Amino acid sequence: NEVVKKYNRSWRSPVDVTEMELKTGDGTFYDWSFAHLVYIQATCFSEEMMQRITDMADRMKPGSILIMVNNRLLRETTFDLVGIVPVEYSFGKATAFIYKKQLAGAYEDSTAAHSKLQEVLQRTFPI
């Protein structure tokens, strides 16, 4: 799978023991609140589905990354929008909205993590 290959090349360090699982289908029926990185191809999603995604995203752990394509969260109060990236697919152009779950009360401590995230985003989605 091309997404897994790109993740392994750009995001993982050789000492990571992170496992990646890809699921196809309606993600609002899975509990992904435990995930550190979630990618959602949200083109043509209904407002009802976007509400369910937003509710699940609110339960993600602080520091987690959420990448949504062609749709934004309905409620962004617990996330920082850290990037808006144009992406080309075989079917055409899209926009990826990259969010980082806010660290509750730890903004000073998140500077290094934010810098690392920016570095990884530049390698993964060069502009």
Order of helices and strands: HEHEEEH
Q: What proportion of the residues is helical, as a percent range?
A: 25-40%
What does the average pLDDT come to? 78
Number of strands: 4
**Structural class per helix/strand content?**
alpha+beta
User: So what's the overall shape?
Assistant: globular
Are there runs of 5+ residues with pLDDT below 50, and where? 106-110
Contiguous helical run count = 3
Strand ordering within the main sheet: 1-2-4-3
Strand proportion, as a percent range, falls in: 15-25%
Largest sheet: 4 strands, mixed
How far is the N terminus from the C terminus? 23 Å
Q: Calculate Rg over CA atoms.
A: 14 Å
Give a verbal description of the structure:
The chain has 127 residues and is an alpha+beta fold. The protein is 27% helix and 24% strand. The chain has a 4-stranded mixed beta sheet with strand order 1-2-4-3, with no helix packed on it. A hairpin with a 2-residue loop joins strand 3 (79-89) and strand 4. The model is unreliable at 106-110 (pLDDT under 50).
What layout of secondary structure does this protein have?
Layout: H1 2-10, E1 37-41, H2 47-57, E2 65-69, E3 79-89, E4 92-101, H3 111-124
Parallel strand pairs: 1-2
Antiparallel strand pairs: 2-4, 3-4
In brief:
With 127 residues, the chain is α+β, with helices and mostly antiparallel strands. The protein has helices spanning 2-10, 47-57, 111-124, and strands at residues 37-41, 65-69, 79-89, 92-101.
Name some characteristics of this structure.
127 residues, alpha+beta, 4 strands, 24% strand, globular
